[in-house]
Design brief:
The complex is a heterodimer. Chain A is mainly α. Chain A has helices at residues 26-43, 46-68, 76-82, 84-100, 105-109, 113-117, 123-157, 164-190, 194-220, 228-231, 234-237, 273-297, and strands spanning 254-256, 266-268. The radius of gyration of chain A is 24 Å and the shape is globular. The longest helix of chain B has 16 residues, at 169-184. The chains are: A mainly alpha, B alpha/beta. Chains A and B meet through helix 1 and helix 6 of A and strand 2, helix 2, strand 6, helix 3 and helix 5 of B.
């Protein structure tokens, strides 16, 4: 019997009850969730472990420089190019993957999502709150890595020799962080298992994009401007004497091209700073939008 | 503001070729508890997840207090407390932190939060664990906190999916007490359960679902009445083993069709005349001072209905 509206005797007709509380704006909720997630990073010691890893990296590089006194100690730009810019990409990828890899997938896998999904929130609010928490935490890690080499630089060259390009490089690293985190969140939304989010993003950024970059250069003989492992070169290139500001330049990341069709010629492509920023922002926007759409459609089934 | 209500309109949910829920039309209104019954895979959790926007309907829509869950999630869930699938809580967090977040997300001012959190933790008997990390909690303790999360904002509508999961008998009894308290405060509780005793004890109405289709939705008394040839059944409990004469006295009361001693201190009474007769019968038993100490609808009656209805579809 498919009973629909049944006339039930025990319905209690009570006087209207005024709502005591109303959910705040989505904007406020994003910041509440961000703060909550930041606390979670702290209490779960994930952030502390990351800081430890970065500290060890910084100490090792600093020690090598201090002991071997390499030739690039002759000027501050070279110093930052050879130290900070060598490690920062790895720091960004590691931070984004560790903080963001399970941000969305973990909600499904660990069933913590049922806790948030029962609240009066838009799904986009959850996504944004978690993204911002990962972003802010990662900024802290980047700042720490930045300060390690700033301290080194000041010790070797004095405060007066601090180049503005070092600050510019940090800003470019932050744009790169936004892109990598966007991609990490995209993969985290795509899968309901945290491990996939971690592994795919790490493999993609540490190996995948580099292989793609080589393939584009060697097989198609074109500039791999749309491959992020190419455009992230701007983080280091801004520390070189002749900065390629626009959408192409002369000083670059050099990519060796090899193979039967191209011989042993060496092709040099340079990501301009503008080009790098635009491509990294595009990665951020596209991956964030796609990740959001996926999360909006994901079911807690 | 109107009475608390839940409504599903032609609500359908398919997973591939499997139809988990088939054009469910159900309207529940008022301060009461409705038990949502059905075998595993009947569509109970699917319905509750659709009501809380955790999954999306293939067609149809559902409303809480007249607000579409699918179109206005934030507003609809603002007046709702939800406990579905026994959510896990972040291991490194404490009940106070989790409830503080929920209060924030629901707009409870900071000045009121501490008192409100203490109140709800006390209601689920977890006040002593307020600052302990969830990682140390048993399944039952986590479930108590989940219930607190669903109630902290004093919602009009409470959706509970197997709330007694993981709880010991004492915990189950406490959940029943919480639900009774909610009913008294004119809250609408829609609760799925496999425990027929729990449903009989606290629910005013039952909705029975199988294979995605609603089979019955009515008051508990009407449902059991409908499937017992017009007879209602109650169990009368006694302080001491009753004299055989007591069974005869009850058997002779107006409307009573049978009166049987089913265990040393319990007499099962079947009678005609629906709820008014039940009311009269209780009055008479009390008035005659037969030593009765309880008067309840037996689980057996609901179980009978449940099994009859479910077997129809096989």
């Amino acid at each position: 019997m498919a009973s629909a509206e049944v006339n039930l005797g025990r319905v209690v007709k009570a006087p209207a009850r005024a709502r005591r509380w109303a959910a705040p704006s989505s904007f406020s909720q994003v910041f509440l969730l961000m703060r909550h997630q930041l606390k979670e990073y702290l209490t779960s010691r994930r952030l502390v472990v990351l800081l430890g890893i970065v500290a060890v990296m910084g100490v090792i590089i600093s020690a090598i420089v201090a002991i071997y006194r390499p030739s690039y100690l002759s000027d501050s730009l070279s110093f930052y190019y050879q130290t900070w810019s060598v490690g920062i990409n790895t720091v960004v990828v590691a931070t984004a993957v560790i903080l963001g890899g399970d941000a969305i997938a973990g909600e499904f896998q660990n069933k913590t999502g049922y806790f948030l999904m029962g609240q009066p929130l838009r799904r986009a609010t959850i996504y944004a709150g978690k993204y911002l928490a990962a972003f802010v935490s990662s900024l802290g890690i980047l700042a720490f890595f930045f300060l390690i080499f700033l301290g080194n630089g000041v010790a070797y060259f004095g405060v007066g020799a601090l180049p503005w390009q070092y600050g510019a490089s940090l800003l470019l690293a932050i744009v790169y962080l936004a892109a990598v985190l966007g991609t990490t969140f995209l993969f985290s939304s795509l899968f309901k298992t945290s491990a996939y989010g971690f592994v795919i993003t790490a493999v993609l950024f540490l190996v995948g994009f580099s292989i793609l970059q080589l393939a584009v250069v060697d097989l198609w003989n074109t500039e791999p401007w749309y491959v992020i492992s190419y455009t992230d070169g701007v983080i280091g290139n801004v520390l070189l004497p002749n900065i390629p500001w626009g959408f192409s330049g002369e000083i670059t990341k050099t990519i060796s091209r090899f193979g039967p069709t191209t011989g042993n010629a060496t092709v040099t492509y340079t990501p301009g700073i503008g080009e790098g920023v635009v491509v990294m922002l595009a990665y951020f926007l596209v991956t964030t939008i796609v990740g959001l759409i996926l999360f909006e459609r994901e079911e807690f089934s | 503001m109107t009475n608390p209500s839940i409504e599903t309109v032609s609500l359908t949910k398919s997973f591939g070729s499997f139809t988990a829920l088939d054009k469910l039309d159900l309207k529940i209104e008022g301060g009461k508890c409705v038990g949502f019954l059905g075998p595993n895979g009947a569509g109970k959790t699917t319905t509750l997840k659709l009501l809380s926007d955790m999954i999306f309907p293939t067609s149809g829509e559902c409303y809480i207090n007249g607000t579409s869950v699918q179109r206005e999630r934030k507003r609809a869930l603002g007046e709702t407390g939800v406990l579905i699938e026994s959510p896990e809580l972040y291991a490194s967090q404490t009940p106070n932190a989790a409830l503080d977040l929920v209060c924030g997300l629901r707009g409870i001012p900071k000045a009121e939060r501490t008192a409100r959190i203490a109140e709800v933790l006390s209601e689920v008997k977890m006040e002593k664990w307020a600052d302990q990390k969830f990682g140390r909690f048993s399944k039952g303790m986590k479930q108590r906190i989940n219930i607190a999360v669903a109630l902290v904002h004093d919602p009009d509508v409470i959706i509970l999916d197997e709330p007694a999961t993981g709880l010991d008998p004492r915990g189950m009894a406490e959940v029943r007490e919480v639900v009774r308290g909610l009913k008294k405060r004119n809250r609408l509780v829609f609760m799925s359960s496999h425990i027929l005793q729990e449903v009989t004890d606290v629910c005013d109405e039952v909705a029975l679902i199988d294979k995605g289709k609603l089979l019955v939705y009515d008051t508990l008394a009407n449902v059991t009445n409908r499937f017992s040839d017009g007879n209602l059944t109650v169990d009368v409990g006694f302080l001491e083993a009753p004299n055989p004469v007591v069974t005869q006295i009850i058997g002779a009361m107006e409307g009573v069709t049978s009166s049987t001693l089913i265990d040393p201190k319990r007499v099962r009474v079947r009678f005609k005349g629906g709820s008014p007769a039940q009311h009269r019968l209780l009055g008479e038993i009390v008035a005659q001072d037969l030593g009765a100490m309880s008067f309840s609808e037996p689980v057996g009656a609901l179980e009978e209905v449940y099994l009859k209805e479910i077997s129809k579809g096989d």
